[in-house]
Write a structure and sequence with these properties.
Blueprint: E1 8-12, E2 20-24, E3 33-34, E4 62-66, E5 74-78, E6 106-111, H1 125-142, E7 150-157, E8 169-175, H2 180-196, H3 200-210, E9 213-216, E10 223-227, E11 233-236, E12 240-243, E13 254-258, H4 270-291, E14 295-301, E15 319-325, E16 327-328, H5 331-336, E17 339-341, H6 345-354
Parallel strand pairs: 2-17
Antiparallel strand pairs: 1-2, 3-16, 4-5, 5-6, 6-8, 7-8, 7-14, 9-10, 11-12, 12-13, 13-15, 14-15
The chain binds zinc ion (ZN) (3 copies).
One zinc ion binds at residues 185, 301, 319, 321.
Length: 357
């Protein structure tokens, strides 16, 4: 492994240029507080856990059990405390500057696995691809309701990442609006496409796989930075790639995206999902080896099934963002909107790649 040299620079997110990150790696420049790893619960079955087998009557009603109610591997239930629901009567009340949209939607919990404490990296490839197929099918079902503008599938792991129940689970929230983060990505990539006639995600993947550059100091002639082939690539499958973004909010953040252009996750085939599951499993194993038991969130960003975005099929590219919570944002980050990375993305990628699986 190369000697980590200290970096201090502000990097602009190429997808959403209004988002930037301060990469400050010298110890004295660390304005962040470290987040503790999540307590690891490796029990398979917990009698008092509402998500464990045998306690099905302790959750809201089952929406779907796969393969069946008795011997389920994945179970979807209504969320006990929904953020959005379909029983809101106060539709579209607006008063002066106070605009509201009806909080209509759906909020469902996906019990990822019958094994209480199993980590994503320990699930089989078959199970992981079944889990993502379940997200896909559920998203397609929910999109039948035309009032729904976006279905967000995500997972919280660990209390700092918002998981209130330790049993492995993820969630689906169907919203009457397209969330700002997704909208910003779609709009910026649309502009990029209009200028360059190419999807920026496809360009980033091409760059990650082929880019090579040496930048010299004009005065001294010394090498200032050398960017190597595959520097940001963490894991590669036949159809998917996991990359460490050049500029992202979280220092260990990884993105998994299809190598071949595809805007809509709900079009993904079973064959592709098997490859995706392999890349996800290996990426999570790498993260777990390097940052041990970190709390994290992952979420899917995909083209909304809304007429407003139909022309973005060529410019948007679906992806999974994995965001480990290794530090607690401070007043500096909240006040400036600038994320701080205390390890450079290049060093993080190198460490993740170096893990022997
Ligand atoms: Zn459980
Ligand atoms: Zn693309
Ligand atoms: Zn995204």
């Amino acid at each position: 492994m190369s000697e980590p040299s200290s970096v201090r620079e502000i990097r602009i997110n190429p997808i959403v240029p209004s988002e930037s990150v301060l990469v400050a790696t010298a110890r004295s420049m660390r304005p962040v507080k470290q987040e503790a790893p999540a307590p690891r619960d490796t029990r398979k079955l917990v009698e008092t856990c509402p998500f464990c087998k045998g306690n099905e009557d302790k959750t809201p009603p089952t929406i779907l059990a796969i393969p069946d109610d008795k011997d389920w591997q994945i179970r979807i239930v209504e969320n006990l405390y929904p953020i959005l629901g379909d029983n809101n009567q106060d539709a579209n009340l607006s008063f002066g500057l106070q605009q509201t949209i009806e909080g209509y939607g759906r909020h469902e919990v996906i019990i990822d696995h019958s094994n209480h404490g199993i980590a994503i990296q320990d699930m089989s490839v078959e199970h992981l691809s079944l889990l993502f197929k379940t997200y896909k099918n559920r998203m397609n079902d929910i999109y039948q309701d035309e009032r729904i503008k976006y279905v967000l599938a995500f997972k919280n792991f660990g209390p700092a990442a918002g998981a209130s129940i330790p049993h492995t689970h993820s969630q689906i929230i169907a919203m009457p609006v397209v969330p700002q983060n997704v909208h910003n990505e779609i709009e910026n990539t649309r502009i990029h496409y209009q200028k360059h006639n190419k999807c920026i995600f496809c360009s980033l993947v091409d760059e990650a796989l082929t880019f090579e550059a040496t930048i010299y100091d004009r005065v001294s002639g010394e090498i200032r930075r050398k960017i190597d082939v595959g520097q940001y690539v963490i894991e590669r499958g036949e159809h998917f790639i996991a990359i460490k973004p050049f500029a992202s909010h979280f220092e260990w953040e990884l993105h998994i995206l299809p190598l071949k252009h595809e805007a809509d996750f709900t079009n993904v085939t079973d064959e592709l999902l098997t490859d995706f599951a392999q890349v996800l499993k290996k990426s999570m194993a790498r993260l777990d080896t390097v940052i041990g038991g970190a709390q994290y969130n992952y979420f899917l960003h995909t083209l909304p099934h809304s007429k407003n975005y139909q022309d973005c099929n060529s410019s948007y590219h679906w992806h999974l963002e994995i965001c480990p919570r290794t530090s607690i944002p401070t007043g500096f980050e909240l006040g400036s909107g600038l994320s701080v990375n205390t390890i450079s993305p290049e060093q993080a990628a190198e460490q993740l790649r170096a893990v022997k699986l």
